[in-house]
Amino acid sequence: MSDESLPAQFSSDDRARMCRALELAAHARDVDGEVPVGAVLVVEREIVGEGWNRNITLNDPSAHAEIGALRDAGQRLGNHRFPGATLYVTLEPCAMCAMALIHARVARVVYGAADPKTGAAGSVFDTLVSERHNHRVEVQRGLLAEESAKLLQEFFRARR
Fold first, then answer.
1. Across all residues in the chain, what is the average pLDDT?
2. What is the reported pTM?
């Protein structure tokens, strides 16, 4: 996809960050045998956190890609809040991850593939933008969605 064909709401930097998240998703699949989901947290145009699914590897139901990226950023930055940050993730966040993003005060989430079963960024739940919270997250969907969905589809097809 060239920059000219990017939807108007996405920049070339957005695309580059999502490409990195896709690399992390492939790592989850190839190295850890995990569901291929990757996430990158960016503050002031710098990657400050990276994560990929590791819940099976770590025997930890909370070890989703988004949580991994938040934990990595927390260690690197010495903080638990990331105002102004953007999280790029290959799959729409679930409710657990959405609440962690709200608590971390992440400003924006860009995701690839929608999750029609458990998505909490508009597909099933609207957790990230709910007026019930004291913090709302801007959500942009569909960046490299086909590539993200293909990784997941091929992973699950191979396991059947």
1. 94
2. 0.94
Handedness of CA 130, 132, 133, 134 (dihedral sign): positive
Q: Rounded distance, CA 87 to CA 159, Å?
A: 29
Count of alpha carbons within 13 angstroms of residue 7, beta-carbon side: 11
Mind listing the pLDDT tens digit for each residue in 58-108? 999 999 999 999 999 999 999 999 999 999 999 999 999 999 999 999 999
Report the greatest alpha carbon distance in the chain: 43
Q: CB–CB of 54/63 below 8 Å?
A: yes
CA distance 96 to 104: 12
Separation of alpha carbons 110 and 137, rounded Å = 10
Active-site residues: which are they?
66
Residue 121 structure tokens = 């960024």
